[in-house]
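Possible regression after last week's pipeline update?

I re-ran a chain I had predicted before the update to compare outputs. Posting the input and the new output here so someone can diff against the archived version. Not blocking, just want to make sure nothing changed silently.
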Amino acid sequence: MKHLLKSKYFIILLITLFISGISFFVINQFIVMPWENFEMPKIENPRLVVKKNERKLQVFDGEKLVKTYDMVLGFSPVGDKEKESDGRTPEGDFYIFTKNDQSKFYLSLGVSYPSIEDAERGLKENLISQEEHDAILQAVKDKQMPPQNTKLGGEIYIHGGGIVKDWTWGCVALRNEEMKEVFDAVEVGTSIKIEP
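New output (post-update):
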């Protein structure tokens, strides 16, 4: 009888530890734990780097790495974005063209996709017209928002919403608390490099 009671307590202990571990993991996907948080210093020359394979977003001040965040991508994360609705996150050099404090996903930073390279590829593959190609080139030259509704796709943002799994349509998602830090650290025009 004593052995049976001990095994029941052991099983209950194991179940409790398992549920606690799962709960901690799930909560950590949405909430920043105290030991992960430090105040972002004022950044004079911000730039962002996204490392897709590592699921990391890095904030630099010039050449100095200031902070690294966990993040998730589009639901089809491998490879460069090629067309609308492919679920891929684009790769290449971009800039932030807008800051949106009324985002459906907490806060968001608009990424200047499609780029000149995307426009060249899109024209060559007959995905976009010459007029759309020229509009993309002009927008990039002027550091404005490129056309967002071509067959190349668009509306690529860095936004909140959590990091449970790759769930976006091609955007980069962070935990809301961390999105606030990044949002406050960068300005329109900030460069962003998205690497494989």
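Follow-up from reviewer: compared with the archived run. The longest strand covers residues 92-103. Marking as no regression found.
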